[in-house]
């Protein structure tokens, strides 16, 4: 069995990794990338075997082999681990490799790669003495390895060399440490090939430098024993410049004097890159195994590069020489090998790019854009001659990138929001969505893999929810003015408070720019006008603005740009020169400069246009690179010559090709009358021969990274905006979700519909839930509605008949979809809009199937108690099933109303109208009307504390209860009253309007005569009135009426009636209190008006008590009389006007006395027992009330008539017959009371004898006339003869008269 292709020196490897002082985050990313790389390598080797690869090509099998499944599952989860590596069980990431090692189904190559993976994991200190279950993991490794058969293979030492050097990169700073001069020699043996490399540098004059080996390979051209691959010496390299415009090799002489340091690392990278370049130019020929031939050297080189990146980590970008090499030459090779037919090479390249992204993404903005556009997206979309394994490896790599926490944010912020870059994030989303949806009904692993990528994007957003709050400080430019968006920059790219608003603004402008691009590609003139209207170009076109638009805007038709620039119009000529001025040709060979220039547009066919364009180019090139060329004319002639040479060498119509000598001869004497150096012309000749200058895009080939496009990319990378680091915050997740949500929901829905495996179901459900969470967070209600509608379709509830319940239970997909629907409804119901209809349809269907919990579907009514009523209601309302559904819907409606109290203003009218229709249409007790009534009461009870503005409207709705049919009201009166009782006790302070209290007291009054409801009703009234806790001016009269009805009611016995009378009498204290408070707190006029209102309340109080005084029950009427007496006597604290007192005597006291006499004389004794005692109390009340109020009454003009009415009632009460005979008690009591009254009047000077000429004699005469009817002896008892004579004499002599008594008697 094959041995892993890993170094034998484990100690050196381990030391190399130990020396790397990674931070926690770097270490996590590095280890994850290492495992991911090894998984990719094993999968690539397995897929080369027909046994494993055919599985994918068929597309018919829904599941992978268990060995592949375990690897893919590991790859899927590796980047989501949040804890430290020491806390991760190593068996988790070792087991997939160990299974392959121990499997009898895997051959030597696969086992060897798996062993290599295990070896590498053990070599990088992922496992140490602190790792959990380390002992068990190592035991598993030992068991697996000892079961293999090994073959001893010669090992190369290049891996040890690379690891030893690059593991110490972090120890170097940017200052080199010189050592004695001497060339660096690297000896290497690759599969039997011995390569010795010594490097020197030769600098040419015209900005070009060529790097040659001082010592040639030995012998000359070396051939690999394994594959026969000739390895040529390192080719000449064009010196390119770093970001500051300086030569990256300007320190070349200095580097030659240094030993194992940065120069050594640069040399190694250059050597490895040269291996890739050499293989790129080798013809494949006709070989039995072209893939194996193609893999040999590049895998070796890529493996070393990957090891270097894993070890050096993020330290690379601190060293400009290494950074420049990776940015340019090395990355270009990655793009070329990213299109390899070998899955193993592809997997290695993608692993390297993932490593580069983790450690250097801030330095590789445009390089990453190019790699995704030209490689990953191109391969992953399939077709165009790419094989299925290529497509699958690319898709796996793309999904791996999507699983990185910051990747999609980085792509969106730095590329999609950059006007000069393509929309990589959108392209990724669209590709994943398209790849996840099968063209037919067959679902393969590729589709689920693409879906994993989409879900990974959404999952990242869910994890970032709550992060990324900013306080925007950026100053957005005025969109109504021209904005030079191709040159405008953010104030601070490191501060989210600045760059977030900046990139959002730029993204909006980019949409306008893309619309302008479409217009321009259709009609250039209209396109420019559109951009002017959008203020993206100035109102008056400027050459500089138009040239920037042509230079930096992707997607423009290059033919139209060429025609515009070549036009003879003066503005077009100015634009052409401004366009040429956007290029930086310093340090470039003429051919590369020409490639870069012609890459940005298509050279028109008209000779005059070509001349104008080349003149502008030549002028710009000579201006920046005047070393060899004598003048701009020389640059122009040589440019023409290169274009002709390009056509000659690469046109199929030209049979005889131009030779070197012919090319040199054609360019004699063009350099100001002199010849150009032969070496210079030969370099140009071979460059054109080897690499064609492409003048046109070739359909799909336009995605290819040509040398011209690469030069353009490197040139633009010097001017592009800095890479913005988002720190994995949700600054722009809302904008990104707007792009990804639609395709994701569509893809998940299709895969969920076609899937047949439980794990795929669960993946889809998790995706649905993640989309719902983000939708709710960022208020994408339409997305959430679409998702819910889609899920409801999968529940199959809406398509089931009543006999399909077993189908629902057995269908895993339907069951999971149903659970997901209600999970979303419970968690994010506030964000759901139109799709509630679908959710309710599902709920109703579950209800009909009897699958809902009992507490959701149970009826409030007792089935046995109301069975007869239910039958009658069913005849009116349809079948019992329909009524049951209606009841359930009503329950849901009420529950929704209660749970949406903040939206009650929107719901209430609909809810009220529905309940009204039920109440008014049903005349018999049934479950539906019961739910309607009690649901209405629950709504009022629950919402009154929170919706004061709707309190009156809610309480007004209770009038529906008053309108219930008598049979319905009687059936539910007790429950209704109990609910009212709860409502009053919990919300009395929130009922402030008279209308609201009127509804409440009306319902309580109804309960007064209901045997079952009276107790709860009186309890509510007692709660309101007891101690005046909730008795208010607005509800006083209403409560008095309700109390009177309870006092008159025989339900509950005499005790409740007595309590009701006490409540009425006790309310007098509230009237007194309100009077005092009004005098203190109000203005005089306002207080007077309020006291007048209080007087009316008092009058209604005594009128109510007067009515109860006629009650048949002796105890009740007697208690009412006493209560009335107390209210009359206790009114001193209320400022009652005189007219009210007179009204009280006439309408209350006298009327009550007359009613009692009538009852005594007319009504049966059996109905009104012991009326004698009541009459005694009544006449006592009259006497006490009159005497109590005598001081006030004597001042009114009608006092005489009032006094006569009092005397008349006393006379009647003394003579009344009780049970056919006069009452002895009354005969004895009335004269005594009258005598007492006369004595008081005498003492107060109201009743005195007058002269015969005085008007006061009227009162005197009237008094004694009526008193004599009662008892003639009272006069002598009250006034003695001496008093009468003395009073008479005083009157005759004009003594002092009692003015008050005189006026009153005169009036009488």
From TrEMBL:
Molecular function in Gene Ontology: guanyl-nucleotide exchange factor activity
Coiled coil: none
Keyword presence, Metal-binding: no
GO biological process, one term: vesicle-mediated transport
Ranges of Polar residues composition bias in the record: 1296-1308
Topology in membrane: Peripheral membrane protein
SMART domains per UniProt: Sec7 (SM00222)
GO cellular component: cytosol; endomembrane system; membrane
InterPro entries per record: ARM-type_fold, GBF1-like_TPR, Mon2/Sec7/BIG1-like_HUS, Sec7_C_sf, Sec7_dom, Sec7_dom_sf
Organism: Punica granatum (Pomegranate)
Gene3D superfamilies: 1.10.220.20, Arf Nucleotide-binding Site Opener,domain 2 (1.10.1000.11)
PANTHER family with a match to the protein in the record: ARF GUANINE-NUCLEOTIDE EXCHANGE FACTOR GNL1, GUANYL-NUCLEOTIDE EXCHANGE FACTOR
Name the UniProt record assigns to this protein: SEC7 domain-containing protein
